[in-house]
Structure prediction request, 257 residues.
Amino acid sequence: MKTPRRRLPATLRVASYNIHLGIGSDGRFEPERIAAVLREIDADVVALQEVQLGPTPFDMLAFLRDATGCEAVAGPTLHGRHGQYGNAVLTRRPVLGVRQLDLSIAGREPRGALDLKLLGRTGEVRFVATHLGLRPAERRAQIRRLLAECGKPRDGVTVLLGDLNEWFLWGRPLRWLHRVFAATPAPATFPARRPLFALDRIWVHPRSLLRYLAVHATPLSRVASDHLPITAIVADPSASTGAATGDEDGAGTMGLA
Prediction:
């Protein structure tokens, strides 16, 4: 069964995409390919990782903002003489608030998260977009800090998404997250040409509002970056709680139950 391309009422299409600075799996720097993949996805909100934030040598976030017509929110984690680098969010929904969370661990590459309040289709939605470290101990500390900063979701809708760099399916960071957000399908996203590892994740609270989740695996997305994007459809709280399954042209999918 195909997921209709038209926007469903009272839903948000969201995505997470590590764009690897615009360098594809073929080693070529072609920002337009990233923009084209984002146009394929056609999401309301996209969390981006490994983004050059300008001003030199190239402002990738400004380029993608102009290419998609979205509002751009920057979450720099590295600052240097060539500009800033880190996380970002592209959104078609109005931004109600922005908070940057520092998840850096001494002696390791600085990491962080963007904590956004956005106006959804019928109400406020919280998005927490992050990119965690490479070492297991680093990720454990970052998840503890992230959960402490964000608190346990109670009212409203919270979407946690990003590149968690978690290679271990039963690692403590995932177990801690599942206690808060409930277990969620995790299709492989890395490496893009032949994905083996589920590094990129999307969680939704309440879990019943996650209506669809898929890897966006098209010929273009397999070459544009070293990661594949992951996408989801989040229902409005007033919608029915029955979960949908689906497929998209060229996309690997996970049914939800």
Summary: The first strand starts at residue 11 and ends at 18. The radius of gyration is 17 Å.
